[in-house]
Amino acid sequence: SRGYVGFANLPNQVYRKSVKRGFEFTLMVVGESGLGKSTLINSLFLTDLYSKDYPGPSLRIKKTVQVEQSKVLVKEGGVQLTLTIVDTPGFGDAVDNSNCWQPVINYIDSKCEDFLNAESRVNRRLMPDNRVHCCLYFIAPSGHGLKPLDIEFMKRLHDKVNVIPLIAKADTLTPEECQLFKKQIMKEIQEHKIQIYEFPDIEDDEDSKLIRKIKERMPLAVVGSNVVIEVNGKKVRGRQYPWGVAEVENGEHCDFTVLRNMLIRTHMQDLKDVTNNVHYENYRSRKLAAVTCNGGVDTSKTKNQMTRSPLAQMEEERREHVMKMKKMETEMEQVFEMKVKEKKQKLKDSEAELERRHEQMKKNLEAQYKELEEKKRHHEEEKSNWEAQQRILEQQKLDASKTMEKNKKKGKIF
Amino acid sequence: PTVPRAGSTLLGYIGIDTIIEQMRKKTMKAGFDFNIMIVGHSGLGKSTLVNTLFKSQVSRWSSGWGGEHKIPKTVEIKAVSHVIEEGGVKMKLTVIDTPGFGDQINNENCWDPISKYINEQYEKFLKEEVNIARKKRIPDTRVHCCLYFISPTGHSLRQLDIEFMKHLSRVVNIIPVIAKSDTMTPDEKNEFKHRVRKELETHGIEYYPQNEFDDDMEDKNENDKIREAMPFAVVGSDKEFQVNGKRVLGRKTAWGVVEVENPNHCEFALLRDFLIRSHLQDLKEVTHNIHYETYRARRLNDNGGLHPISANNTQESNL
């Protein structure tokens, strides 16, 4: 008989580790202004993320769609949740709302890209998950059906993120109107082949009943409020009208509790899993497949490359890249040699020039030297002539004085 | 010419005051037309409200839910006429619906078809008026009143609302109403109304009753009160429920019944009284004396004078 090994304790270990690590969840809210999105978020997480000072639509100056994120840390029973709420102010508010979904798509893709890059890095120690795990789409309670904008948005986003459509401000509808409206919306969603978030089938009997109940109530009709009112001695969160109080947490008044339980208490992990396993993987394979379709490649090649695995493709690319590098290297060497030759030639030319000039100067100097020599000889000649003459004159003078002396002695002085 | 002498005392009863009774009899026999246009994007309860106002199924969706509310690709103008009678007075009511307004992704200039329709009615009337052989009573298809439905966002007017009202407040009487107001608590309602009024003022939008057309002090006082209370926050319903032993028109929710005619619940009664019980005739008069005359003057100036169309309708004019 096998004794107790102890790996039944594994779930506890996983649990403890997860709790220590803390959880992350990113929730996006989309819908035109005035549908109570901020109030609902405040109600869901019992926070004041959107306080009275938050600039609501009436104060908003920009008339384009923005994507803004706010982080809040929620602690409960030792578990820590880093909740990121992504808001899309300006969505659907302009007169011309063409492409107002583009900033939303760009945001979701950019978060997936960040994750892809982080995953591919060498050092993967810190890998924060900022991908959008769930997108709550708010439908105006018209009572008729979906608007063209609703359909267009959901069609473009259903394969990028978990879309959960909600009927906003549901206290505007009577129960019958709400039922008809929900039916109509689901019909249109199916007609347009929009894939909203599907609750997973669980084998557990009890849970599957609960899930079926949720599925019947889709899309969830919600009302939000953080104002506490007293009804029949009980304190409830609700909205006070002259004709009664619409209670937020009353299952007969609206589906708020269903949403809260589903979003936070039962399916938060599943939303993250679906995001990771389905939406992110779609993004990843799309992104990496795009590697094969580089610009400048002719179509015949592209066809073959499409079927190859990314790794082979990467190897091919590497080879190409190396060849390219080699070619560049030889080219550069050629250019270098040519330049060296040129320079050498230049130097030679200037050397020759210098030599020539040197010769020239030497010649000049020699000529000058010769001239000077000539002059000097001439001058020497003159000098010796003159000296000779001077000697003669001296002699004559001496002779003359001698004769005078003789004549004096002979007394011939007159 | 001699100036009539100021009233000498009557020595007996003449019966001049019976002229009012004579006018009333004539009006009752003739009946009168009223054309109301409803504008707002789909899902704001426009048809329900019009049905509630006139206590009859006068809108396009008289069958209630069950019709295919398919949003058309462009703005359509659908006019439906009914003759309703009350106290011996016959009214030919025409409700002009504008499906498709504000429902597309790109709503640029979606008010153009509406503007065109309104001007076409003026043109029709003008042509009749200019005719040599005129009909005794020109059929009046001009839009006397345009109810503009504002979405109860609780924040402020949307860009489209401002654009529409700016373009059309000079051409037709616009009465803005806040639709489906049972979505807001009393405080939210007041704040919203206040903000909307400020915005309308900032953009220079003159809604009916316009300031400049008040005839005298009495009118001005009455109209001032109305202007301060506008836009009316309304709820419509054609279903009746039992409340405190009374049958009332309303909407039944899980937490109570919204009574349409209860002034504490919404301002439907105010709108109805204003629109039908006190200002119906004034709406027609302002349309005829001011909006239509403006149109006419512009047309005549543009064409350098109109030539009347001859009896057999040969085209002599350059209309």
Automatic annotation (TrEMBL), chain A:
One of its GO terms (biological process) is cell division. Keywords: Cell cycle, Cell division, Cell projection, Centromere, Chromosome, Cilium, Coiled coil, Cytoplasm, Cytoskeleton, GTP-binding, Kinetochore, Mitosis, Nucleotide-binding. It is found in: Chromosome, Centromere, Kinetochore; Cleavage furrow; Cytoplasm, Cytoskeleton, Cilium axoneme; Cytoplasm, Cytoskeleton, Spindle. GO terms for molecular function: GTP binding. Its main location: nucleus. The keyword Nucleotide-binding applies. The keyword Transmembrane helix does not apply. Residues 21-290 form the Septin-type G domain. Signal peptide: none annotated. Residues 370-414 are annotated as: Disordered. Pfam families: Septin. GO terms for cellular component: axoneme; cleavage furrow; kinetochore; midbody; septin complex; spindle. InterPro entries: G_SEPTIN_dom, P-loop_NTPase, Septin, Septin7. Residues 370-385, 394-406 have a biased composition (Basic and acidic residues). It comes from the Eukaryota. PROSITE patterns: G_SEPTIN. Belongs to the TRAFAC class TrmE-Era-EngA-EngB-Septin-like GTPase superfamily. Septin GTPase family. This is Septin. It comes from Oncorhynchus kisutch. The gene is LOC109889269.
TrEMBL record, chain B:
Its main location: cytoplasm. The keyword Nucleotide-binding applies. Keywords: Cytoplasm, GTP-binding, Nucleotide-binding. One of its GO terms (cellular component) is cytoplasm. CDD domains: CDC_Septin (cd01850). It comes from the Eukaryota. One of its GO terms (molecular function) is GTP binding. Residues 30-302 form the Septin-type G domain. The keyword Transit peptide does not apply. It is found in: Cytoplasm. Belongs to the TRAFAC class TrmE-Era-EngA-EngB-Septin-like GTPase superfamily. Septin GTPase family. This is Neuronal-specific septin-3. It comes from Oncorhynchus kisutch.
